[in-house]
Amino acid sequence: MKTNQNQMNADLFMHQIEPMQAKLFRLARRLLVSQDAAKDAVQDVMVKLWEKRSQLADKSNLEAFAMTVTKNHCYDQLKLKRNQNVSLTHENIEDNAKNIDQVIETQDQVQKLNNCIAALPINYRMLIQLRDIEAYSFEDIAGIMEMSETNVRVTLSRARKALVKQMKRQQS
């Protein structure tokens, strides 16, 4: 990851950072809920990363660093209360249903799941997004969330239990 000048040039930046944009977007969308707010957040994060490009070459896990920057930026946005009353959509689930009834049923189930996830506390939503949707390792999540790996595992277990409880509550 280190360049000869210990600084990223535009080509190296685009080669290493651009492929992460989809993951950054999904994380931002999970935290901010709004697709438009998530797009704006990712653009802001990309600008921040570009401005810090001289420091990026020294990062051992660039993707985890980018996810941390995204998480912090989204938290800042939430603190500013710029994102209110927006709908949640989840577009990264492939739908292989053959007929319209199955499509509608699947979309309804995904919407119910997303509603349940959205009702969870933000740290639970974040852990579910990182581990169960993005498939990050516990080590990477610990770095992103600034928690110990043990704490990540315990909190993720609690988040999953809370999600199950929320889903049961919604079904009744």
Question: Which helices and strands occur, and which strands form pairs?
Answer:
Layout: H1 10-17, H2 21-32, H3 35-51, H4 53-56, H5 62-79, H6 100-118, H7 122-133, H8 138-145, H9 149-171
Helix pairs in contact: 2-3, 2-5, 2-7, 3-5, 5-8, 6-9, 7-9, 8-9
Protein name: RNA polymerase sigma-70 factor, ECF subfamily
GO molecular function, one term: DNA binding
InterPro entries: RNA_pol_sigma-70-like, RNA_pol_sigma-70_dom, RNA_pol_sigma70_r2, RNA_pol_sigma70_r4_t2, RNA_pol_sigma_r2, RNA_pol_sigma_r3/r4-like, WH-like_DNA-bd_sf
Structural write-up:
The protein starts with 9 loop residues before the first helix and ends with a helix. It is an all-alpha fold and 172 residues long. Helix content is 70%, strand content 0%. It folds into 2 domains: 1-84, RNA polymerase sigma factor, region 2, helix turn helix motif (Rna Polymerase Sigma Factor, Chain: A, Orthogonal Bundle), CATH 1.10.1740; 98-172, Winged helix-like DNA-binding domain superfamily/Winged helix DNA-binding domain (Arc Repressor Mutant, subunit A, Orthogonal Bundle), CATH 1.10.10.10. The longest helix is centred in the C-terminal third of the chain and has 23 residues, at 149-171. Helix 3 (35-51) packs across helix 5. It has helices at 10-17, 21-32, 35-51, 53-56, 62-79, 100-118, 122-133, 138-145, 149-171. Residues 112-163 form the RNA polymerase sigma factor 70 region 4 type domain. Pfam families: Sigma70_r2, Sigma70_r4_2.
